[in-house]
Amino acid sequence: MNFFLLIIFLIIFIFIIYYFKSIIYKIKNPIKLEIIKINKKFTIIDFYVFKTSYGLGVDDKENIYVPDFESGLIYEINNNNKQTEIYKLQNNKLIKISFFEKLVTFSFLQKILKNFSNIYKPHDIFFDKKKYMYISEMGNGNEKGGGKISVFSANKKLVSQIGYNLRNNEGLIDPVMTYVKNNFIYISECGTNKILRYKKFHFFDWIGKSDHKLNDNTFNKTNLFFTAKLNKPHGFKIGPDKNFYIVDSHNHRVCKFSSKGLFLGWIGKRNDGTINDNWSKKGKSIKGKVLGAFNAPIDLVFYKNFIILSDCFNHRLVKISFSGKSLMWFGEKKKDNNLNSIWKKDGHSLPSKNITGLNKPYGLKATKDAIIIADKQNLRIKALKFKQFF
């Protein structure tokens, strides 16, 4: 009996040693990295480092910043992919979490204790030309307010919290993405179907004709610099043609406006079944699967005279010409084993955990040689690195 108990204790001891050894390894190497070289010109890198992320940010040194939606922690992945720092907000500054906090993050202790970073449901990150970091915090979510944009200087000090006192301190309502251009800050306030515009951290005006039921007395209708009937807008960008591009997510389309407010049209699928691929203004948009149709698109970036769009519920990226035509898509389809044919023109994309697959892709960022995607449902960040992307 004593010998039997000794064996049991020995097994438990070995298990404990092995478990804590693996935890220490995770603390030192929080990134799980998978690299697949498709060919001489194309490499895919997957980063597994957090729980849930809807977006990401890339600074001027091409370090990747990942907001963990559940914990509020911010992960910084060095551009050589060999170092990761984890930050929380404390005393109005982003600081690195301690060894003990890492132990909590990467062990069973996370079910008992929780790390608090004072960043509440971070959704996306944007860096402007001044190296300021903008973190979109959704707040309470589900149109309950409490949202804001926390702005940090290059040394990670908090310099402003945009929108926290809007609507008599009700705050922003589901802010999901931020974009900065020409001294204006554009905030996609998904919960009220608006794109808010700030100048020098002060509310200026907005895009979007909203039927939202919550108190919008803050807004003066004369300040609306142009109207658009939006439905849960996410990505907003100003293109190289100086036009405004809005990813109108729940209308399953991308809208284009001139900088003076002239509606230039939309692309997507019409309710008569045809594809609008030339920025026509006619028809009503609906979701679809075929190339040229979208299903809850989320974000877009511009790369080499093309638009790259994350088509979330179609589980793919779409390459689109500036004329409005969808040319091909990246993702995975049934019985698709040809890694050399990563861009496709036919078939339907499926959710996939494979290296060439996506599952509800959200935020996008572009660098000199890569498109980086928050592959939300796969709990990873995917980088498509290329010498010749298409």
Polypeptide structure, described:
This protein is mostly beta strands and 390 residues long. The chain has three helices and 30 strands. Strands 17, 18, 19, 20, 21 and 22 form a six-stranded antiparallel sheet that branches. The model has no long low-confidence stretch (mean pLDDT 86).
Set out the fold topology.
Elements: H1 2-28, E1 32-39, E2 42-48, E3 57-58, E4 64-67, E5 74-77, E6 84-90, E7 93-96, H2 99-105, E8 122-127, E9 133-137, E10 148-152, E11 158-162, H3 166-169, E12 175-181, E13 184-189, E14 194-199, E15 202-207, E16 224-226, E17 233-238, E18 244-248, E19 253-257, E20 263-270, E21 275-276, E22 285-286, E23 297-303, E24 306-311, E25 316-321, E26 326-330, E27 343-344, E28 361-366, E29 370-375, E30 380-386
Parallel strand pairs: 15-16
Antiparallel strand pairs: 1-2, 2-30, 3-4, 4-5, 5-6, 6-7, 8-9, 9-10, 10-11, 12-13, 13-14, 14-15, 17-18, 18-19, 19-20, 20-21, 20-22, 23-24, 24-25, 25-26, 26-27, 28-29, 29-30
Please give the largest β-sheet. Answer: 6 strands, antiparallel
Percent range for β-strand residues: 35-45%
Shape: globular
Query: What value does the average pLDDT take?
Result: 86
Distance between the termini: 68 Å
- Class by helix and strand content? mainly beta
- The count of DSSP E runs of length 2 or more, i.e. the number of strands, is 30
Helix proportion range: under 10%
What gyration radius follows from the Cα positions, in whole Å? Answer: 22 Å
Low-confidence regions: none
- What is the tally of helical segments? 3
